[in-house]
Amino acid sequence: MTARVADRGQAVELFGRPSILPADAIELRLPWPPSVNAIWRNVAIKGKPRTLLSSDGRAYFERAAGEVLGQRAGRRIAGRAAVEIILHAPTRALIDIDNRAKALLDACTKGGLWHDDGQVDVLLVMRGGVVRMGAAIVRAVEIEP
Question: Left (φ > 0), alpha (ψ -120 to 50) or beta: where does 16 sit?
């Protein structure tokens, strides 16, 4: 499978970074995601190990999924997808950008952008500039029905 995501429109520049996606891609501005390490908690319940969503994770997903639902304006990706993420950290502290992507993809799933983040075949994660309180720009397009 070859994904030629720029065929349907001209590529755009997003926050000073060139985009690989066409201009008609769905664009979302989401709150700064917590680290994957802060979202999930490993605990023992009756002696059995379990992985649970933390309270911070629940709060983030509730807020971010609401943003996705409102901003996607009824649009939904039914087939295979290409996704571009630009992370605007709240400070200049070093971060692992890949550590934030899963929370954003899960929020898009919970907000109904697609059925499952397993539909994503192309994922580009970029570091943007520092923005007060942080933000994540998620652009997505269907590349194959």
Answer: left
pLDDT in tens, 110-127: 999 999 999 999 999 999
The tens digit of pLDDT for each residue in 63-108 reads 999 999 999 999 999 999 999 999 999 999 999 999 999 999 999 9
Q: Tell me the residue type at 85.
A: I
pTM higher than 0.85: no
Domain formed by 11-144, architecture: 2-Layer Sandwich (3.30)
State the Cα–Cα distance between residues 15 and 86, nearest whole angstrom.
9
The domain locations on the chain are 11-144
Q: Which helix (H) or strand (E) holds 135?
A: strand 135-144
Q: Which residues contact 11 (CB under 8 A, 6 or more apart)?
A: 18, 19, 20, 21, 22, 23
User: What is the distance between the alpha carbons of residues 79 and 121, in angstroms, rounded to a whole number?
Assistant: 10
Distances (CA, A) of 83 to 49, 108, 118: 33, 11, 12
- For 63, the enclosing helix (H) or strand (E) is helix 55-71
